[in-house]
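All the exercises in this workshop are built on plain-text protein records. A record pairs a protein's sequence with a compact description of its fold. The structure tokens are whole numbers drawn from a learned vocabulary of backbone shapes. Once this layout is familiar, the rest of the handout is easier to follow. An example says more than a description, so a record of this kind follows.
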Amino acid sequence: DVTEALLSRDAAKVISDGEQMTAIVRQLLIDSSARAKLGTTAREFILTQQGATARTIDLLGRIMPQVVGASSSPLPSHKAA
């Protein structure tokens, strides 16, 4: 899960109420080092995820013929409504 990955890298904050939001925003406005670290860490993680959809589609394209060929029933057709 992306949220858990960001949280585990200290690249995101969990905010449960308005007071906590105010405190975190205030801290980040005051502490440029913390702000830069949070932003940099989040950006680095997001960059590692780029292309994930394309990799997944490529993988599915390679394994689907095997899965469909092994199936005893044809895949259902989808008709537009």
Observations:
- The radius of gyration is 21 Å.
